[in-house]
Amino acid sequence: MEHASTANGKLPRELLELIFKNLCPTIEDRDSDPGQLDRLLLVCRFWTMVALDYRHLWSSIFIILKREPDYAFWTSYARTRLQRAGPTEPLQIKLITRGLYNQTDQDEEMKILLSILTGSTGEVAQRWRQLVCVSTKPTTKRIYDHFFSFPTPKLEILIINGVSILQTYQFLPDTPSLSELRLAWCNIPHIKDLSSLICLDITMSGNAANLLEQATRLERYKYTHLRDWELTRTIHLPRLLHLEIMAPFFSGSLNRLTAPNLVGLRIHLPRSDHISWVFNAPGIPLRTLRELDLYSCLMDEQLDKGELRKLLLATPNLKKLSSGQPNIAVLLLCLLLDMDNLHQAAPGLLFGCLNDTALLGVGEERQKTIMRLLEIIKEKYKHLLYISV
Protein backbone atom coordinates (compact mmCIF):
# COMPACT_ATOMS: atom_id res chain seq x y z
CA MET A 1 0.00 0.00 0.00
CA GLU A 2 1.41 3.41 -0.95
CA HIS A 3 1.15 6.24 1.54
CA ALA A 4 1.21 9.99 1.22
CA SER A 5 4.40 11.88 1.97
CA THR A 6 5.53 12.07 5.60
CA ALA A 7 7.40 15.35 5.09
CA ASN A 8 7.62 17.63 8.13
CA GLY A 9 7.05 14.67 10.43
CA LYS A 10 3.34 14.42 9.62
CA LEU A 11 1.49 11.12 9.71
CA PRO A 12 0.33 9.97 6.28
CA ARG A 13 -3.24 11.11 5.66
CA GLU A 14 -4.43 7.53 5.11
CA LEU A 15 -2.99 6.42 8.46
CA LEU A 16 -4.53 9.38 10.25
CA GLU A 17 -7.93 8.58 8.73
CA LEU A 18 -7.53 4.99 9.92
CA ILE A 19 -6.90 6.29 13.45
CA PHE A 20 -9.99 8.48 13.19
CA LYS A 21 -12.03 5.52 11.96
CA ASN A 22 -11.12 3.55 15.11
CA LEU A 23 -12.19 6.53 17.24
CA CYS A 24 -15.69 6.61 15.76
CA PRO A 25 -18.19 5.57 18.46
CA THR A 26 -20.77 2.84 17.95
CA ILE A 27 -24.31 2.52 19.30
CA GLU A 28 -23.05 -0.05 21.83
CA ASP A 29 -20.97 2.61 23.63
CA ARG A 30 -22.64 3.44 26.94
CA ASP A 31 -21.42 7.01 27.25
CA SER A 32 -19.75 9.33 24.81
CA ASP A 33 -17.90 12.51 25.65
CA PRO A 34 -19.14 15.12 23.13
CA GLY A 35 -15.84 17.01 23.43
CA GLN A 36 -13.64 14.00 22.72
CA LEU A 37 -13.66 14.35 18.95
CA ASP A 38 -13.36 18.14 19.12
CA ARG A 39 -10.06 17.78 20.97
CA LEU A 40 -8.61 16.22 17.81
CA LEU A 41 -8.93 19.66 16.23
CA LEU A 42 -6.53 21.09 18.81
CA VAL A 43 -3.53 18.92 17.88
CA CYS A 44 -2.36 20.86 14.83
CA ARG A 45 -3.62 22.38 11.58
CA PHE A 46 -3.00 19.16 9.64
CA TRP A 47 -5.07 17.09 12.07
CA THR A 48 -7.82 19.72 11.92
CA MET A 49 -7.88 19.63 8.12
CA VAL A 50 -7.95 15.83 7.91
CA ALA A 51 -10.52 15.47 10.71
CA LEU A 52 -12.93 17.98 9.17
CA ASP A 53 -12.57 16.33 5.77
CA TYR A 54 -13.26 12.87 7.23
CA ARG A 55 -17.07 13.03 7.29
CA HIS A 56 -17.58 9.63 8.92
CA LEU A 57 -15.85 10.85 12.09
CA TRP A 58 -18.72 13.26 12.77
CA SER A 59 -21.61 11.08 11.63
CA SER A 60 -22.27 9.47 15.06
CA ILE A 61 -24.23 11.90 17.23
CA PHE A 62 -24.68 10.56 20.75
CA ILE A 63 -26.79 12.87 22.89
CA ILE A 64 -27.28 12.35 26.63
CA LEU A 65 -29.58 14.84 28.36
CA LYS A 66 -29.05 14.70 32.12
CA ARG A 67 -29.31 18.32 33.22
CA GLU A 68 -31.03 21.45 32.03
CA PRO A 69 -27.89 22.98 30.39
CA ASP A 70 -27.54 19.88 28.21
CA TYR A 71 -30.57 20.92 26.14
CA ALA A 72 -29.10 24.29 25.15
CA PHE A 73 -25.69 22.74 24.45
CA TRP A 74 -27.01 20.03 22.15
CA THR A 75 -29.42 22.34 20.36
CA SER A 76 -26.33 24.19 19.15
CA TYR A 77 -23.77 21.38 18.92
CA ALA A 78 -26.02 18.94 17.03
CA ARG A 79 -26.13 21.45 14.16
CA THR A 80 -22.33 21.61 14.19
CA ARG A 81 -21.98 17.84 14.07
CA LEU A 82 -24.45 17.54 11.20
CA GLN A 83 -22.64 20.26 9.28
CA ARG A 84 -19.30 18.46 9.71
CA ALA A 85 -20.84 15.14 8.65
CA GLY A 86 -21.84 16.72 5.35
CA PRO A 87 -25.05 16.32 3.36
CA THR A 88 -24.78 12.64 2.38
CA GLU A 89 -22.96 10.66 5.11
CA PRO A 90 -25.24 8.03 6.78
CA LEU A 91 -25.90 8.89 10.43
CA GLN A 92 -25.94 7.11 13.78
CA ILE A 93 -28.22 8.97 16.21
CA LYS A 94 -28.40 8.07 19.88
CA LEU A 95 -30.69 10.16 22.09
CA ILE A 96 -30.93 9.43 25.82
CA THR A 97 -32.93 11.55 28.26
CA ARG A 98 -32.33 11.11 31.98
CA GLY A 99 -32.55 13.00 35.27
CA LEU A 100 -34.92 15.78 36.26
CA TYR A 101 -37.35 17.05 33.71
CA ASN A 102 -39.25 20.34 33.73
CA GLN A 103 -41.96 19.49 31.23
CA THR A 104 -43.14 23.05 30.64
CA ASP A 105 -39.68 24.48 29.92
CA GLN A 106 -37.95 21.56 28.27
CA ASP A 107 -40.67 20.20 25.99
CA GLU A 108 -40.08 23.13 23.63
CA GLU A 109 -36.30 22.68 23.76
CA MET A 110 -36.77 18.99 23.07
CA LYS A 111 -38.95 19.72 20.05
CA ILE A 112 -36.25 22.00 18.64
CA LEU A 113 -33.59 19.34 19.13
CA LEU A 114 -35.74 16.64 17.55
CA SER A 115 -36.41 18.93 14.59
CA ILE A 116 -32.66 19.40 14.10
CA LEU A 117 -32.12 15.64 14.08
CA THR A 118 -34.77 15.09 11.40
CA GLY A 119 -34.33 18.26 9.37
CA SER A 120 -37.24 20.59 8.69
CA THR A 121 -38.49 18.45 5.81
CA GLY A 122 -36.99 15.11 6.88
CA GLU A 123 -33.76 15.53 4.90
CA VAL A 124 -31.65 14.46 7.92
CA ALA A 125 -33.92 11.52 8.77
CA GLN A 126 -33.38 10.28 5.20
CA ARG A 127 -29.75 9.62 6.22
CA TRP A 128 -30.36 7.77 9.50
CA ARG A 129 -28.63 4.41 9.47
CA GLN A 130 -28.95 3.64 13.18
CA LEU A 131 -31.33 5.30 15.62
CA VAL A 132 -31.49 4.78 19.40
CA CYS A 133 -34.07 6.62 21.54
CA VAL A 134 -34.04 5.97 25.29
CA SER A 135 -36.07 7.89 27.87
CA THR A 136 -36.02 7.36 31.63
CA LYS A 137 -38.14 10.43 32.36
CA PRO A 138 -41.74 11.41 31.62
CA THR A 139 -42.37 13.47 28.49
CA THR A 140 -45.41 14.73 26.69
CA LYS A 141 -46.59 11.68 24.77
CA ARG A 142 -46.95 13.50 21.46
CA ILE A 143 -43.45 14.99 21.52
CA TYR A 144 -41.89 12.14 19.50
CA ASP A 145 -44.73 11.63 17.01
CA HIS A 146 -43.46 14.12 14.42
CA PHE A 147 -39.89 12.90 14.97
CA PHE A 148 -40.86 9.43 13.73
CA SER A 149 -43.02 10.62 10.83
CA PHE A 150 -40.41 10.91 8.06
CA PRO A 151 -39.22 8.33 5.50
CA THR A 152 -36.00 6.61 6.56
CA PRO A 153 -34.84 4.56 3.55
CA LYS A 154 -31.33 3.93 4.96
CA LEU A 155 -32.36 2.98 8.50
CA GLU A 156 -30.94 -0.42 9.46
CA ILE A 157 -31.15 -0.49 13.27
CA LEU A 158 -33.93 1.00 15.41
CA ILE A 159 -33.91 0.82 19.22
CA ILE A 160 -36.68 2.48 21.27
CA ASN A 161 -36.78 2.24 25.07
CA GLY A 162 -39.26 4.05 27.30
CA VAL A 163 -40.56 6.38 24.60
CA SER A 164 -44.33 6.79 24.20
CA ILE A 165 -45.61 7.04 20.64
CA LEU A 166 -49.24 7.96 19.97
CA GLN A 167 -48.84 7.79 16.19
CA THR A 168 -50.62 10.99 15.31
CA TYR A 169 -48.58 10.59 12.11
CA GLN A 170 -47.73 7.42 10.25
CA PHE A 171 -44.76 5.84 11.99
CA LEU A 172 -41.63 5.69 9.79
CA PRO A 173 -43.49 5.33 6.48
CA ASP A 174 -40.50 4.00 4.53
CA THR A 175 -38.11 1.46 6.13
CA PRO A 176 -36.95 -0.89 3.32
CA SER A 177 -33.51 -1.41 4.94
CA LEU A 178 -34.60 -2.03 8.54
CA SER A 179 -32.89 -5.25 9.70
CA GLU A 180 -32.89 -4.93 13.51
CA LEU A 181 -35.73 -3.67 15.71
CA ARG A 182 -35.63 -3.55 19.52
CA LEU A 183 -38.59 -2.17 21.47
CA ALA A 184 -38.62 -1.94 25.29
CA TRP A 185 -41.14 -0.41 27.68
CA CYS A 186 -43.08 1.30 24.92
CA ASN A 187 -46.18 0.76 22.84
CA ILE A 188 -45.83 -1.28 19.65
CA PRO A 189 -46.09 1.02 16.64
CA HIS A 190 -47.42 -0.05 13.28
CA ILE A 191 -44.49 -0.21 10.87
CA LYS A 192 -45.44 -0.39 7.23
CA ASP A 193 -42.35 -2.10 5.78
CA LEU A 194 -40.56 -4.93 7.64
CA SER A 195 -39.52 -6.84 4.52
CA SER A 196 -35.82 -6.71 5.51
CA LEU A 197 -36.21 -7.34 9.24
CA ILE A 198 -33.87 -10.06 10.54
CA CYS A 199 -33.81 -9.45 14.30
CA LEU A 200 -36.80 -8.52 16.52
CA ASP A 201 -36.45 -7.99 20.29
CA ILE A 202 -39.53 -7.03 22.33
CA THR A 203 -39.26 -6.29 26.08
CA MET A 204 -42.26 -5.33 28.22
CA SER A 205 -43.94 -3.77 25.22
CA GLY A 206 -47.14 -5.60 24.49
CA ASN A 207 -48.00 -8.10 21.79
CA ALA A 208 -45.91 -8.02 18.63
CA ALA A 209 -48.01 -10.42 16.55
CA ASN A 210 -48.73 -7.71 13.97
CA LEU A 211 -45.00 -7.25 13.42
CA LEU A 212 -44.39 -11.00 13.09
CA GLU A 213 -46.94 -11.29 10.32
CA GLN A 214 -44.93 -8.87 8.17
CA ALA A 215 -41.41 -10.01 9.10
CA THR A 216 -41.21 -13.07 6.85
CA ARG A 217 -37.38 -12.89 6.69
CA LEU A 218 -36.97 -12.88 10.46
CA GLU A 219 -34.05 -14.96 11.78
CA ARG A 220 -34.02 -14.03 15.50
CA TYR A 221 -37.03 -13.26 17.69
CA LYS A 222 -36.97 -12.53 21.41
CA TYR A 223 -40.00 -11.69 23.56
CA THR A 224 -39.68 -10.79 27.26
CA HIS A 225 -42.72 -9.91 29.36
CA LEU A 226 -44.57 -10.62 32.59
CA ARG A 227 -47.79 -11.10 30.66
CA ASP A 228 -48.62 -14.00 28.38
CA TRP A 229 -47.16 -14.26 24.90
CA GLU A 230 -50.07 -14.90 22.57
CA LEU A 231 -50.60 -15.63 18.91
CA THR A 232 -54.21 -15.61 17.73
CA ARG A 233 -53.41 -16.34 14.08
CA THR A 234 -51.01 -18.70 12.32
CA ILE A 235 -47.57 -17.16 11.75
CA HIS A 236 -45.15 -18.73 9.28
CA LEU A 237 -41.49 -17.75 9.72
CA PRO A 238 -39.51 -19.89 7.27
CA ARG A 239 -36.14 -18.26 8.06
CA LEU A 240 -36.41 -18.13 11.84
CA LEU A 241 -33.31 -19.68 13.45
CA HIS A 242 -33.44 -18.52 17.07
CA LEU A 243 -36.56 -18.10 19.22
CA GLU A 244 -36.63 -16.77 22.80
CA ILE A 245 -39.95 -16.65 24.67
CA MET A 246 -39.15 -15.30 28.14
CA ALA A 247 -42.78 -14.98 29.19
CA PRO A 248 -45.74 -17.20 30.09
CA PHE A 249 -47.62 -18.32 26.99
CA PHE A 250 -51.04 -19.65 26.08
CA SER A 251 -51.36 -23.31 25.12
CA GLY A 252 -52.31 -22.65 21.52
CA SER A 253 -49.74 -19.95 20.77
CA LEU A 254 -46.83 -22.26 19.96
CA ASN A 255 -49.19 -24.36 17.84
CA ARG A 256 -49.83 -21.31 15.65
CA LEU A 257 -46.12 -20.66 15.02
CA THR A 258 -44.38 -22.48 12.18
CA ALA A 259 -40.58 -22.25 12.11
CA PRO A 260 -39.27 -25.22 10.10
CA ASN A 261 -35.61 -24.13 10.22
CA LEU A 262 -35.40 -23.32 13.93
CA VAL A 263 -32.07 -24.33 15.52
CA GLY A 264 -32.14 -22.49 18.86
CA LEU A 265 -34.96 -22.31 21.43
CA ARG A 266 -34.94 -20.50 24.77
CA ILE A 267 -38.25 -20.74 26.58
CA HIS A 268 -39.89 -19.92 29.89
CA LEU A 269 -41.77 -22.80 31.53
CA PRO A 270 -44.03 -21.39 34.28
CA ARG A 271 -45.60 -24.82 34.91
CA SER A 272 -44.88 -28.44 34.08
CA ASP A 273 -47.77 -28.64 31.62
CA HIS A 274 -46.01 -26.03 29.47
CA ILE A 275 -43.36 -28.64 28.67
CA SER A 276 -45.91 -30.77 26.83
CA TRP A 277 -47.09 -27.66 24.97
CA VAL A 278 -43.55 -27.33 23.63
CA PHE A 279 -43.02 -30.88 22.39
CA ASN A 280 -46.57 -31.08 21.03
CA ALA A 281 -46.20 -27.91 18.94
CA PRO A 282 -46.24 -29.13 15.30
CA GLY A 283 -44.39 -26.10 13.91
CA ILE A 284 -41.37 -26.38 16.26
CA PRO A 285 -38.84 -28.89 14.81
CA LEU A 286 -37.52 -30.32 18.08
CA ARG A 287 -35.76 -33.24 16.41
CA THR A 288 -33.42 -30.94 14.48
CA LEU A 289 -32.96 -28.43 17.30
CA ARG A 290 -29.31 -27.67 18.13
CA GLU A 291 -29.63 -25.37 21.18
CA LEU A 292 -32.16 -25.52 24.03
CA ASP A 293 -32.30 -23.20 27.06
CA LEU A 294 -34.98 -23.73 29.71
CA TYR A 295 -36.13 -21.27 32.36
CA SER A 296 -38.81 -21.44 35.07
CA CYS A 297 -39.84 -19.12 37.89
CA LEU A 298 -41.43 -21.87 40.03
CA MET A 299 -40.75 -21.18 43.71
CA ASP A 300 -42.69 -23.86 45.57
CA GLU A 301 -42.48 -26.85 43.23
CA GLN A 302 -40.18 -28.30 40.61
CA LEU A 303 -40.76 -29.12 36.98
CA ASP A 304 -41.97 -32.64 36.40
CA LYS A 305 -39.05 -35.00 35.65
CA GLY A 306 -41.19 -37.19 33.42
CA GLU A 307 -42.15 -34.27 31.20
CA LEU A 308 -38.53 -33.07 31.03
CA ARG A 309 -37.47 -36.59 30.04
CA LYS A 310 -39.95 -36.53 27.15
CA LEU A 311 -38.56 -33.19 26.02
CA LEU A 312 -34.98 -34.50 26.05
CA LEU A 313 -36.04 -37.59 24.09
CA ALA A 314 -37.73 -35.31 21.54
CA THR A 315 -34.48 -33.33 21.02
CA PRO A 316 -31.83 -36.03 20.30
CA ASN A 317 -29.65 -33.83 18.10
CA LEU A 318 -28.92 -31.08 20.63
CA LYS A 319 -25.41 -29.64 20.67
CA LYS A 320 -26.02 -27.28 23.58
CA LEU A 321 -28.36 -27.59 26.59
CA SER A 322 -28.50 -24.90 29.27
CA SER A 323 -30.52 -23.23 31.98
CA GLY A 324 -29.99 -19.97 33.84
CA GLN A 325 -31.60 -21.58 36.88
CA PRO A 326 -29.55 -23.99 39.01
CA ASN A 327 -32.68 -25.96 39.97
CA ILE A 328 -33.49 -26.84 36.38
CA ALA A 329 -29.81 -27.44 35.60
CA VAL A 330 -29.59 -30.02 38.39
CA LEU A 331 -32.76 -31.76 37.19
CA LEU A 332 -31.46 -31.91 33.64
CA LEU A 333 -28.07 -33.28 34.68
CA CYS A 334 -29.71 -35.97 36.81
CA LEU A 335 -31.82 -37.00 33.84
CA LEU A 336 -28.79 -37.07 31.55
CA LEU A 337 -27.06 -39.43 33.98
CA ASP A 338 -29.88 -41.94 33.50
CA MET A 339 -30.26 -41.35 29.75
CA ASP A 340 -26.76 -42.40 28.73
CA ASN A 341 -27.91 -43.31 25.24
CA LEU A 342 -28.50 -39.63 24.32
CA HIS A 343 -25.96 -37.28 22.74
CA GLN A 344 -23.23 -39.87 22.37
CA ALA A 345 -21.71 -38.41 19.20
CA ALA A 346 -18.29 -36.88 19.90
CA PRO A 347 -17.46 -34.40 21.31
CA GLY A 348 -20.72 -34.67 23.25
CA LEU A 349 -23.24 -32.18 24.58
CA LEU A 350 -22.22 -28.70 25.76
CA PHE A 351 -24.05 -28.03 29.04
CA GLY A 352 -24.39 -24.63 30.71
CA CYS A 353 -25.69 -23.18 33.97
CA LEU A 354 -25.22 -19.44 34.41
CA ASN A 355 -21.44 -18.87 34.13
CA ASP A 356 -20.50 -22.55 34.27
CA THR A 357 -20.25 -24.57 31.06
CA ALA A 358 -18.75 -27.96 30.31
CA LEU A 359 -18.42 -30.25 27.33
CA LEU A 360 -19.86 -33.49 28.67
CA GLY A 361 -18.02 -35.82 26.33
CA VAL A 362 -19.16 -39.39 25.64
CA GLY A 363 -19.09 -42.77 27.36
CA GLU A 364 -17.55 -43.02 30.84
CA GLU A 365 -16.09 -39.55 30.51
CA ARG A 366 -19.64 -38.18 30.11
CA GLN A 367 -20.79 -39.74 33.39
CA LYS A 368 -17.77 -38.39 35.30
CA THR A 369 -18.16 -34.90 33.83
CA ILE A 370 -21.86 -34.79 34.77
CA MET A 371 -21.06 -35.83 38.36
CA ARG A 372 -18.38 -33.15 38.67
CA LEU A 373 -20.67 -30.50 37.22
CA LEU A 374 -23.47 -31.49 39.61
CA GLU A 375 -21.12 -31.06 42.58
CA ILE A 376 -19.98 -27.66 41.32
CA ILE A 377 -23.52 -26.37 40.78
CA LYS A 378 -24.85 -27.68 44.10
CA GLU A 379 -21.99 -26.07 46.01
CA LYS A 380 -21.68 -22.84 44.06
CA TYR A 381 -25.41 -22.10 43.83
CA LYS A 382 -26.70 -23.74 47.02
CA HIS A 383 -28.24 -20.44 48.12
CA LEU A 384 -30.37 -20.52 44.94
CA LEU A 385 -31.46 -24.14 45.21
CA TYR A 386 -34.93 -24.17 46.70
CA ILE A 387 -35.67 -27.85 46.01
CA SER A 388 -34.26 -30.98 47.51
CA VAL A 389 -31.54 -32.33 45.19
UniProtKB/TrEMBL annotation:
It comes from the Eukaryota. InterPro entries: F-box-like_dom_sf, F-box_dom. Residues 10-63 form the F-box domain. Pfam families: F-box-like. This is F-box domain-containing protein. It comes from Serendipita indica (strain DSM 11827) (Root endophyte fungus).
